[in-house]
Each structure stands twice: as C-alpha cells, then as structure tokens.
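User: For a benchmark we're assembling, each entry needs the component sequences followed by a predicted structure for the full assembly. Here are entry 17's components. Please fill in the structure.
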Amino acid sequence: MSDFLSTLIGSPVAKRVGVPQPTRLRRYEPGTPLCDSPVLVAGEGRFAASLSESLRAAGLVTVGSVEEAIDTIGAVVLDLSSATDPEDLDALRVLGAPAVKRLRTNGRVVVIGTDPATLTDVTEVATQRALEGVVRSLGKELRRGATANLVLARGDASAGAWSAVGFFLSGRSAYVDGQVVRVDAGAGVDDDPVKPLDGRVAVVTGAARGIGADIARVLARDGATVVAVDVPSAGDALARVANEVGGTALQLDVTAPDTGTRIVEHAVSRHGGLDIVVHNAGITRDKLFVNMDEARWSSVIDVNLRSILRMNEALLGEGALSEGGRIVCVASIAGIAGNRGQTNYGASKAGVIGLVTALADQVRDRGITVNAVAPGFIETEMTARIPFATREIGRRMNSLQQGGKPKDVAEAIAWLSQPGAAAVTGQVLRVCGQSLLGA
Amino acid sequence: MASQPRPRAPRRAAVLGGNRIPFARANGPYAKASNQDMLTAAVDGLVARFGLAGERLGEVVAGAVLKHSRDFNLTRETVLGTRLDPRTPAYDVQQACGTGLEAAILVANKIALGQIDAGIAGGVDSASDAPIAVSEGLRQTMLAANRAKTPAQRAKALAGLRPGHFVPSVPENLEPRTGLSMGEHMALTAAQWGVIREAQDELAAASHRNLASAWDRGFFDDLVTPYLGVTKDTNLRPDSTVEKLSTLKPVFGRGEGATMTAGNSTPLTDGASAVLLASEEWAAEHRLTPLAWLVDAETAAVDYVHGDEGLLMAPVYAVPRLLARNGLTLQDFDLYEIHEAFAATVLTTLKAWEDPDFCRERLGLDAPLGAIDRARLNVNGSSLAAGHPFAATGGRIVASLAKQLKDNGGGRGLISICAAGGQGVVAILEA
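Assistant: Structure for entry 17:
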C-alpha cells in the first residue's frame, strides 16, 4: 500500500494536481565538470583570486560580475573572508542577489568567511558569524535543487578553501545544503582529480548493504582498494559488494575485542597498508526511554560507539593507519537533534560526534583527519519500512524537499577521504538537504 | 644447437583458504537451488574473500555426484556466472564422495608440475534438486521414433509405448552392482567388525559438540558465507547427547545387530564448497599467506562386489600406502579428518588399523598401524554434524583442516574420505 502511495505521489497525475515535485538533483559523475559555467566569483576576501584561478584550471568559465554573464549562472562564489564590520555584509546582497536570481537549476551558492573562533575583536566575530545566518536562510529560499553552503577559513592557506569550495560546487554535495565547513592550514593535493583515492586502501564497516555498500562503491570508483567489513551473517551480501568493487570481504563483528587488530592485519598483509577507515556499521533498537531495556540500550551503544573507540586504538597504533590517513564516522542527525524513541541511538551518535572532535586534535600532527557525516533522511531499506505518512513527512521536511540517496552520504565521505581534504578535520558534515530537524 | 628445456622440479602447492555455503538438510532452505546456483555462491564467496574479482586463474575443478544431464559442463558454466575472469578454464570431475578432495589433488598436482599457478577446487551437491529422468523404456522408444525415417516407422516405434514407461526414473542411493544402499553395506561391515551402538552415538555426539564449538568461537567466520538466509549448518544439533541419540531406532541392518540410526548416519544434504590453491610464488605475488601445503595423496579401491571387502573400506588401504611413500607412521599426525559417512565408518577404519591380523593379511604390514589419539580426530566436527553434500565434503575438510593447522602454528594432518563404488581418497596437509 505504502509503495503504491509513493508511486502515486510522484506520478504525473500528482504533478498536475499540484503536489510539489522534487527537482532531480545533479549528482557527481566522474569526468564531468565540477558545475555549470559561468561561475561568478566576487567579494573582497583573500581567497577570491586563487579560487578563480583554480576554477579556470578546472575548465570552468568564471566571471567577476553578473553583467559579464550572458544568460544564466551556474554557481556563485562570494568571498567575504575579509569582512570586519556589519556594513561589509551588504556586499553579499549587492553582489549575490542579481546572480542568485539568474541561478540555474541545481546551481550553487558558496560563501567564504573567516572562522569566528580565530578572531578576537567582537565586531569582527559578529560580522563573520552573520554569514552563517545568511547562508542558512538562503538555503531555505533557493529552489530547483540549488544549495547554499559556507566555508570558514582558519588562516590564509588556500588549499583547504579550494577543496571545500570544489566539493560544494560539485554534484558530490547534491544533498548537502545550508552547511558550514571549517578549513585549517592542512594542505594536500589530489594528484588525479578523477581518481583522487588512487592507491589508497580503505576499510568500510557495515558494507554489506545500504549506505555502507554505496560508500564502498564510491570509494572504489574514486580509485581506492576497498576492504568491505560486515558481520558474518551478512556475508553473502558483503561478498557481492566486495566482488562488485573488486575489493575483499572480511566477515567480522565490529564489537569483537580483536576486530581492530584483525582489520589492520588484513589491510596491511593483503593490501600493503591502510589509509582510510569509514566507521559506518550501526544498528537501531528503538524504544521509548521509559520502556528501554538493557539489551536495546547496550547493544546500540556497543555497536555504534564503543566499537569505534575500541577499533581506533588498533587502527591508530604502530604500523596501522598511515600518515595522512583518514577516519570518517557515520553519525546521524539523531545525534544532533535527537529523535523520539531513540535515546540509545541518539546517545551513540552524539557520542560519535564527541569522539570525532576530540580525536581530531590528538592525531593532527600525524596528518590524520577525523570527521563525521550526519545523514538526514536517506532512502534506504531501513527508511522504506517507515509508515507512508511519517516517511513522506521525513522525506520532504528539508530545503530540497526530498530524501537523499545512500550515494549522497558516500560522496561526502569520499570527499573527506581525499588527500586534498587535509584541511578539514574534527568536523561534522550533515548530509540532510538542510533538514528542519536539528537545524 | 638449441638447448633442451630442463625438466622442472615439482613445487609445493599451497592451500590458501576456502569458502563454503552453510550445509542444509535436503528439502530445506536450498530445495530450489540448483547445483550451479550453490557452486556459484561458494566460488563467489571465495572470490570476495581473496579479492579475485576479474582474476584469471589457471583452472577451476569441481563436480557433483547427483547431476542433471544438462549440467554436463557444470564447473565451466559456474565460472561464467562468477566474478572470475571468464577466460578461466574449468572442468568437471566425479569420484562420488571423493570428488571434492580429488578435485583439490588435481589442482595441486598441476600447480606442483608448474602447469598452472593457481586454481580453485570445489564440489557441490543437491539431494533436493535431484535429476529425475524418463524411464529407460520411454527413452528407448523415443530414440527409436527419432531414428525412424518414415511416418509408418515412427508410428510403429511409438506403438511400443506402455503405461509403465511413464513412471519416471528417480536416482537412488544404491550401489548398482549389489542393489544395496550405502547404509546397508556399512551395516554389514559394522556387524563384521563388531562396532557397537554406544561407540557410534558417542562419535556422533562429539561431531555435533565439536562443530558447535567451532561455530561459537568464530572458526567459520572466514570459511563460510551465508546463502539464502542460512547462516549456519542446519543439521547441527548443539545440544545433541549420547542419551538422546540412544533413543533413535536403527534404520540400517537387521534385528539385534542393527546399530545404525539417523543420528549416527549422515543425512541427505545440500551444499557447496570451494578451496583456493596456488604456488608459493603466486601466493606471494597476491600477498596471500598459505594456510597449509597439500603434500601428497593416494586413492584406493576395494572389491566389495564379490564380498572381499566392505564398500567403504578403501581408505583403510590407501592410508598405509600413503604413509609408506612419505616415511610416516599413523601417529605422526597432529590432526585427523576422517569423513563421517557413518559413525560406523570411522570406527571400523580405526579398528582395522589397530587389528594385527587385518593389517598383516589385508594390508601386508608387519605390524598394525596402531591407534590414534582420538582428541585429534575431527576436532571441528565432521559430516555427522555438518551434513554431507557428497561432492562438497572434500572442500569443507581441506579448508577447515588447513586453517586449523595454521591456527595451531603448524603441524601435519591426514584426510580420509570413503566413496561409493568401493573407493577411497586420502591426503596429507602440512603447515
């Protein structure tokens, strides 16, 4: 019944009677341009010049003002990183509004600012913080698959800004909207833009199905050798994924005490090293707090949080994760906004966010980054089981008015895994279409 | 003058690992799975475990005992359905229950001779999806009609049809030359050797106990890939005890001396297994660590038709020949894998090796081979607990034994498998 309703609501009939139809999002395909040209690059900030250069090097046409563009505009990059006073903010409106008016379907707005945490002057902090309000509001105004996101620089280094801007412009960020990413001085280069993970060995837990399977696929597409990990009972689906991506299947329960060691042993002995770890394995055991039993509580905490803490000890040990390695955890908006019936799950996912923040600082000197992505409503087997009405609300309660795909989460993870994303660490990137939850 | 190519010295063949699907009792969860489906699943699981997608291997060798005529090229068709490079050649073998082990020996021998560098040996059987054929009378009539050149000749041929011709021919677990089932044969041998009921039930209980404990400690995490929702061998009864087994009624043999029950005989089973073998160099190039080496093997056959020897006694003859060739005694092994066709098979085999008269008269030995340490026998369970999809048993045993030897930090293991037609296949693994 609920499948029938889903079909109906997306049908041409529904469209004609006025049911809003979501825009088909532009999703990344290897070898295609980052985004449509021209890209308006404007603003007085310290990154505008180098970003224009990088965009042109990537084969895009850039313009300095909206008048230069003949027709529509593919994307708008506004560098406000040098704004120090509230009156400087008006430049956003002056430069941006005419361009946004002419923004193409699936267009992009990326604003660059300076991380207020690096500033001391109260006026400057207030000014830079204001950018977040602009971007989050603009995200809700944009239609037809367009997104608005903010990059906050922690210094003058431009490599990180370029990596983040490139991600937000591209189809990799299809379901990332209204978000803020901070970039520091970490510098890395993607030698091959089509295969940025070439030569890297990646481990993905929970890889047998859903989001985990797509993470394996996208990492492999980007050049990584993938070790697909899941519980022995999911071994048949796991084998299919591993064979599809030309990787290896490793049947392991992430909660076993020696799992981290076994992953390291497998990756090093079979593939010669370990560069990327994606902690994706997770379970839900929903129950209202007052009815929550011990088994539900502890299994969720153990699988979703404790296992990561335990595995990381081995993964970050001697001869394990390489210098410049990447750890990406899958959190959830339930860990940010909370969810009725999910005190256990919310605890585990909020815990993951804490873990990411704290661990990032500890391994910074080894060039290792630690980040999390927090998926919102993603179309998976799990969300397909939600009753129709609840699901339809969950699906539409975001600025893009649709659910995301597992691939969208995978793309964000693949970006954070790139050598070029060295400047992004200790962050939580939401892949939620700017969900109203936890906003 | 052109230089003569020098003969190459044989090299060692390594067992790198294995994969099987959980074994399931016949007419259960795999009832609608074909041999090709199951073998494909077993091979693809192996491919995933070892990252062999797109890899061209030297050869894939496998077989099935119960086989449809359309599956004449079963293994090659299987390879074409897996993630292996389709340019991987394959062939079928059939040596009854010895099929799986014989396939491993064949692959190992080609590796040893340098003819291939790596290969997969496997086996599969479905007792559920069994081939049912038309009766011999109908077949002959149809062939005669096909040969007919005129309508009159065709009508004449078809006039020979009789109602009885429409009764299909169902495969039976009978020895063609004696008309006795394997169980009936074994019952004769068991009675001859005085194998008692309690000993058989004890062996069966131990098989279930050992298999259950292997599953519990995760031993099969890298040996088994689930299939069709089955994650564990369905015949396994972890709570099996001698007391429970003793309540079952005998199904083979007659009267007082009947000792063989459904509990101490293997059930009809569906399943598939595959083993990856390779040369030392190939393993190193692929960053794979050998679990064990397939050192040597021997086959034997007995004349059970004329009553000279029991149907399942051939391994008893094969092992002393294998030991002599390798300068070993029966006690020089850390682990023994004696296929449990029936509990009585294992017990008779052990009794025969301990019997001075038998060893002297039948095996031509000065002294009996002697007893083995029973604690080293079938330590991770065997066919009584796991079930016995005929051709898949060899692969199950080779992979499990190789892994256990590796886990032990080295050692030597003996495999002994009896087969229909009075045959036996035995082999030595070393780690």
